Model the fold of this input.
Amino acid sequence: MWVRSKEGEALDIVDRAKARDREAFEMLVERHATETYRLAAAIVGTGDAADVAQETFVAAWQQLPKLRDGGAFVPWLRRICVNRSRNWLRTRKRRPQAMFDVHDDATAPLLPDGRGDFRAAVEARAVLEPAFDSLTPHQRAVLALHYSMGYSIADAADALGVRVGTAKSRLSAGLAALRRAIENPVRDVEADDAGTEATS
Amino acid sequence: MNDQQIIEYLRSRGRAEPPLELTRSVMAAIDEAPPARSWFSAQLPALAAAGAVAVLAAVVILLGQNPNVGPGPSPSAEASATAASVEELEAAVSAATERLAEAPGVEGVHTSMIEEYLGSAGWFDWRPNGDQVVVLRRDVDVMTPWWMDPDGEPLTVGERVETNITALVGDRFYRTEDGAWVVSDRADAPRGPLSYATGLLSGEMPAVPPPTLDAEPIVTRRDDAGGGEIWTLEISQDEGTTTLEWLIGPDGTLASIASEGVDVTLAPTENLGTGSTRFTIEFTAHDDPEPIPTPDVDAPPDPAAFGLPPDFPLPGP
Done:
């Protein structure tokens, strides 16, 4: 879990890292790598999540001395990750990723009764994946923060740098956009090619 | 596809497992990464800064719900500047503001920038009876706090521009919403001024923002080449500085306000991220202005109908 760095030990590690202690920063990376990767994956997909997470930590290392409140490290890191992810979507060509991996825990929830309804899970994901990919970076980010990562609306708003009311409205709009995309799929040749390649 | 399936899918996106070598690759990248580039090295003159939270917060909120700016204060001629007190500054600026507000009409433009990007721009037309119209345009992606990411950039610039018009005319309050007019009684208008600039003219906003308690302000006065005088207030806070500058014309009326901040906190309540902000307000007094036109509520809101200058710095969609 991503834990707010309120404890003395965590603050001490952040302070040491701010003072350019590489070992301390490595501890921060180890502590927050999973959550950072998952947040990036939730926004940009698993194909690019490692690159985005790496960029996030490099940026954090470079700018950490400017962070005034060490206790704010976690939301600060989240915010960097969200912005990196959105910039990635805007500027980079995404890599293909597997449409479905039965060994991936991420797909397990799509199987209603354990591994029983494999076909239904594949079909659902085949609809949902391109629908999610069609959303704007803003919509992806808010859905990822709240639903994928389980953050409260307030924490999602904090990561997005917007007011709580704005986050709520974006969340609602994002869900509505996702439903529309599911109902009216836009055929994405590139995504289809990627999926075919990855699953073949 | 039901909602439960959608939610389950979204949850599944947050359960991916990182590659085992992620920490190692991150640390390797850190060792190879060049030193961080200063956010401000490209553009920050030694001059001013924007940091005083209280100062910026008041202006920022009222100028467009974010840090504001335009051209920054002009470089000060240190040799001719004389030190002054905060009380002298307040007296001079208050008198100049009151004198401006005595004009039959005052029009003006304000701009605000974050780093090198124009975030919002407003135009206002104000009458002493309180009638006024305020057009505010905001570049949504510039105003979104991209600056929290040290290497962040706005998603787009100039592509998603929102325009809002508010007006107090006669006994009615008008505002735009979703491309249409919403009309209510003037008595039901939101409390407070429609803009920082018109709030100054009506006296609802203090002529000089109160400095933060822990800041030691530096006040100077110098002659302006055009015959007026320039007052500056410089406040340092943490590692940043805010400089506000008031230009008072030869006739004793307030002509412009400018502020520039360097290394200041852009999100004061969150204490995250610092940056550069600049804002300006330029006032023009009119001796014989037309009344503020009553909005045609049956027509789509059009800023040009109120006299928005064609060279307004932030074009609409």
In short: Residues 50 and 117 of chain B are 16 Å apart (CA to CA). The helical segments of chain B are 3-12, 22-32, 53-64, 86-101, 140-143, 196-202.
